[in-house]
């Protein structure tokens, strides 16, 4: 009789490298985005400072938690997630930003641009996972829903 780990390894062996690549990229995207958002949280100067400062703090916490979800999913698939800062930066499709003092217009423009990119990456990965890996599919679908909601909230704020 096969052990549970043998069965799991066989199941995970069917996951193509491309999904693993996407899960790694998304881990790195959340890492870089979380730190960029932390910078926005610190350097915001705006008449609505208090509200947006708090909101960015919450977003930072949410994105930090997401790093862990994707990294741990990679471990469950017997893969090593990116873990060093240099790996995160080289793998992420999000660039580091060096923030000066910024206002709410800058924040909303920045978040919309990067969330659009993240949404595309999550959607591609989710379609891939839907065929082969139910747990990753569930994680990706949940995160896709969250990003779609954030984009809607920020678009409603700008327009
Ligand atoms: Fe804070």
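^ Assign residues to that structure.
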């Amino acid at each position: 009789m096969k052990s549970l780990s043998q069965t799991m390894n066989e199941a995970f062996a069917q996951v193509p490298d491309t999904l693993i690549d996407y899960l790694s990229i998304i881990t790195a995207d959340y890492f870089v985005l979380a730190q960029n958002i932390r910078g926005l949280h610190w350097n915001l100067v705006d008449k609505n400072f208090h509200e947006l400062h708090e909101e960015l703090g919450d977003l930072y916490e949410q994105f930090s938690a997401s790093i862990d979800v994707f990294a741990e999913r990679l471990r469950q698939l017997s893969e090593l997630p990116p873990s060093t800062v240099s790996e995160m930066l080289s793998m992420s499709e999000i660039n580091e930003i060096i923030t000066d003092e910024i206002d709410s217009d800058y924040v909303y423009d920045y978040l919309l641009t990067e969330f659009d990119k993240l949404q595309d990456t999550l959607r591609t990965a989710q379609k891939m996972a839907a065929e082969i890996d139910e747990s990753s599919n569930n994680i990706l679908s949940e995160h896709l829903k969250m990003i779609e909601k954030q984009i809607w909230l920020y678009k409603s704020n700008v327009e």
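The chain has one domain: 17-158.
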